[in-house]
Amino acid sequence: MKKMMLIAISILYLTGCAAFEQTGPVHVKIHDGENGTVKEVAQRIEDTKELYDSVVVAADSTLVVSYKVKHMNRFQMKSIEKKMKRWLTEKYPEKEIVLSSDYKIFMELYAFSDKWNTGELNEQEAMKEIEKIIKLKKEMT
Amino acid sequence: MADHWITQSKAAADAHELKRPVLKNCIKAFLVGGIICTIGQLVTLLLMLYFPFTEQTAGNPTVAIMVFFSMLLTGFGLYHKLGQFAGAGSAVPVTGFGNAVVSAAIEHRSEGLVLGVGGNIFKLAGSVIVFGVISAFIIALIKTVLFQLGVI
Prior knowledge:
The complex is a heterodimer of chains A (141) and B (152). Chain A is of the alpha/beta class and 141 residues long. Chain A has a single domain, classed as Alpha-Beta Plaits (2-Layer Sandwich), CATH 3.30.70. Helix content of chain A is 55%, strand content 18%. Chain A has five helices and four strands, in the order αβαββαβαα. A four-stranded mixed sheet of chain A has the order 1-2-3-4, with helices on both faces. In chain A, helix 4 packs antiparallel against helix 5. The radius of gyration of chain A is 17 Å and the shape is globular. The relative contact order of chain A is 0.13. The model of chain A has no long low-confidence stretch (mean pLDDT 84). Chain B has two domains: 99 residues, no CATH class; 27 residues. Chain B has eight helices and no strands. The model of chain B has no long low-confidence stretch (mean pLDDT 90). At the A-B interface, helix 1 and helix 4 of A face helix 2 of B.
């Protein structure tokens, strides 16, 4: 019984840790010419000390940004998001901007970037995937 | 005269009463409640990994699953052992709600399905629902008014 408890607790602990591991910043540009955008946004996230780990996906009409917030800064998550959103909308007023600190969105974007980098998707399919992720992000209940 | 006797006997009884181990109970409740919440977090994580739920939308199904777990445990007669050990640690998380519903249903099963189970199933948990709905209504009202006034 005691052994089982120990095993169960350690499994819980390890899975908890795995979720917040840094998987490395990932930058994806769907259309050529978005290189600068991706770099700027990634740099800005790197400069914000409350954040770590980012996925930036840029197409010519949309910009999807996902990041993780450091644990003790999770209390200020809303104000961080507001600040980032304001900065992005000022900088790229012609783009649809989707900003999320949600872990699920992060995972989906990460999986998407993997697929894109291996060349599984063409441009159209990629835009469809992005639309799907944006739809998931907008779901409230 | 009678008053004097009562205070005297009360003092005598107090002297023999065992001291409650408050700190120990608190630590037990803290640990068990924390483990229950960690399991809840694991459920959230699994929902996010294997189903299309985001952090925002995974909350409600997690609550439902945790209540379901505690209902099963209550049915198997395991939850009251945990409750005896942990006290409030097992009652305060949402699992306590499932326990309250099912234990009331089991207790009144002998009085029949309709008047027994149906009439008494929310005997303990009913107040949770009533005050939950009322407070949600009041908060929503305040929020709506503030929105209309343009404060937020």
